[in-house]
Design brief:
alpha+beta, 4 domains, five-stranded antiparallel beta sheet
């Protein structure tokens, strides 16, 4: 958890800015004190949230400790670049170097503020609702849905009791504390007098939340039932990682700037710990990844006959023919002509078999008809 603090640069920074002697180990002690405070915050947050969030808290704490150590070491290095004017004196003072040092100080302070923001992230882990990354997310959503539906019915029953009795005294559905709060809200005339304990907007909002959670449960259940698999493309592969609830793109090498910009615009982010570009596994993610042409799956179009030239008739000796020519060719007048030609050919073959069975030929009376039809074509 603790990282090394460079005591040499810390001592140099102290000597460059103060006449007092440096206390050995004071820089390390200051850093470790801040880390201990962050550890206490993380432990308290773990007690408040579901264990599913503990790994994320640990990752944030580890990131805080590493970045804080690097920031402190950089600070001591900056402070030791140019001595204070009170120590070195004004004669031949390197003003330009001091200006660069001050600019570096400002950047280091800004970085320190961002690092302290990690503590706020730790305090917010697990407090933003039910995450889709939680393996028990569907179960928790169903429990929340059940409680909302119960509360919806309680609100209706309380309003019905008030309409019937014109008072909340003796209402059996809520506690005394809730009853007093409802009565106080009804007596408050700052925003208009309420005609019922639970106003219309409260019922409407709760009903909308019930519908939203139902849709989310249905969406997550459909996603769990899907059997989609990843695919390979030229230079990498797309992985559907259901365990991590991530859609991941793994490249053989670093993609060019155009592809990286396209990935970012479609919600994908680089995950150094996994070595992939990824985003949460949702229907939108599956749609988005297929819009990136360089990694989209290849779809082979079906071949269909759309014109008369796409249809081939059987030659002499063949027995196969189209099941229904009229369904495969154009409907602009050529269908009936082609059908007539095919019927004449079939009739000629049938007559030849009836005569001797040795040769297949067309009767003489059919030949002029075929020639006439072909000349019309």
């Amino acid at each position: 958890m603790y990282h090394e603090i460079n005591e040499t640069t810390a001592r140099r920074a102290k000597e460059a800015n103060s006449y007092r002697n440096y206390k050995e180990g004071s820089a390390t002690a200051e850093y470790r004190s801040m880390v201990d405070t962050a550890k206490e915050i993380a432990d308290k947050q773990k007690q408040r949230v579901d264990p599913i969030h503990h790994d994320r808290i640990d990752r944030l704490l580890a990131s805080y400790c590493a970045k804080l150590a690097a920031n402190h070491n950089k600070m001591y290095e900056i402070e030791g670049r140019v001595p204070s004017i009170l120590v070195a004196g004004p004669s031949n003072f390197p003003v330009r170097k001091k200006e660069k040092q001050n600019a570096a100080r400002r950047r280091n302070v800004e970085e320190y503020r961002n690092i302290q923001g990690i503590l706020d992230k730790i305090k917010g882990v697990g407090m933003g609702g039910i995450s889709a990354d939680d393996p028990n997310a569907v179960v928790k959503l169903k429990e929340k849905l059940e409680s909302l539906e119960i509360f919806q019915q309680i609100m209706k029953d309380v309003n019905a009791y008030y309409r019937k009795h014109k008072t909340l005294d003796g209402v059996p559905y809520v506690s005394d504390d809730v009853r007093l709060k409802l009565q106080a809200q009804m007596n408050n005339t700052n925003f208009g007098r309420q005609t019922q304990p639970y106003p219309v907007w409260a019922l409407s909002n709760n009903s909308a939340e019930i519908r939203r959670i139902k849709k989310r449960i249905e969406s997550m259940e459909r996603m769990a039932e899907k059997s989609d698999e990843g695919w390979s493309f030229d230079g990498g592969e797309v992985v559907i990682n259901k365990e991590a609830n991530r859609l991941q793109i793994r490249f053989d090498g670093k993609p060019d700037e155009t592809i990286r910009a396209e990935l970012k615009s479609n919600g994908f982010r680089w995950a150094p710990s996994q070595g992939v570009w990824q985003r949460q596994l949702t229907n939108n993610a599956l749609f988005a990844v297929k819009q990136i042409k360089s990694i989209a799956p290849v779809v082979v179009p079906a071949i269909t006959a759309t014109t008369a030239s796409d249809i081939s008739f059987p030659i002499s000796g063949e027995t196969e023919k189209p099941d229904d020519i009229s369904d495969s060719v154009r409907s602009d007048g050529y269908t009936s002509v082609l059908g007539a030609i095919q019927q004449d050919k079939d009739k000629g073959k049938e007559n030849a078999k009836n005569n001797d069975g040795d040769k297949i030929h067309q009767p003489q009376d059919a030949q002029p008809k075929n020639k006439k039809i072909q000349s019309e074509l």
